[in-house]
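ARCHIVE CARD
Drawer: 12
Card no.: 0347
Subject: one protein chain, sequence and derived structure
Cross-reference: see card 0346
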Amino acid sequence: MSDARQRWVFRTVHSARPLQEKMALFWHNHFATGYTKIAGQLSAEAAARALAAKPSEDPSGVRGQLELFRAYALGNFRDLLVAVSQDPAMVAWLDGDTNVKNKPQENYARELMELFTMGVDFYTEADVHAGARVFTGWNLRRNRTGEQRSVQFGFVARALKEIGWAGSRPRWRWPRSPIWARRCSSRRTWPAGSWDRRGSPPARCSRG
């Protein structure tokens, strides 16, 4: 990580685009993240890449957070906010990878409202809870290329919890299907429109 810091300082001093570098520093301060915690979750090498790598330096071609700030330095704030919400370093920093449907994690939603956008006293606890539910599934996908591991943003819609690695792929614990669904064997199909929005079981299982 010290190499990444030195490279950033050198680029700031010698850049032909000093305003871009100053704005990247500004956004880095606004959307604050910490290397130590991210390294604890991803590994030291993966954390350094998540924070400062160019796409060509990452096994999955993911640009680091600093490169993201350079790209959006003088652009639209809304676009930057969406990009930061999908940034692997930010997802790891504010525990987005533990925000799952059976237990919403409120850290990012709270920081988004309190520090990144509206400010203190301009949101409610109900807003935070709703925001956490909105971001459920905005998660990380862990990739392995040889001995190198990297992470990238990935939407994981149904997984409840990541429980480790299986070879080169992460293992997820998936929710069990309701008993009525398990009783409808793979030889049967459900007629279209046979369940309602509450997830009630179909009235019957038709032969496929």
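Annotation on reverse: The longest strand covers residues 138-145. Strands lie at 138-145, 148-155, 161-166, 169-173, 188-189, 206-207.
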